[in-house]
Write a structure and sequence with these properties.
about 110 residues; elongated; about 80% helix
Length: about 110
Amino acid sequence: MSTEYYDEELEEIRRRKLLELQRRLLEEQKRAEMEARKRAALRVILTPEARQRLANLRLVNPELVEQLENYLIALAQSGRIKVPITDEELKRILAEIYRRTHREFRIKFT
């Protein structure tokens, strides 16, 4: 009786692990598909030089680039920007984002 119970318990653990692995695989496939769509959209939206600038910036600040890519895709989908975006236009957008988000701290000693 105890080996039968042990076998059933082991089989249940195996089944749960298999389900978890299948779930993870599905999530990874969805994530990869979304990334592929995003890269395809950015190939249309940005010139090669602008894409290279984003790739360089990603090394320094990946979170900013992620947000910027989503922002650019949304702007292009809504028709609010002229496509393709050149490197110069991307520099202006980055400068505007920096201007809006950058805070300068000054310490004054008296």
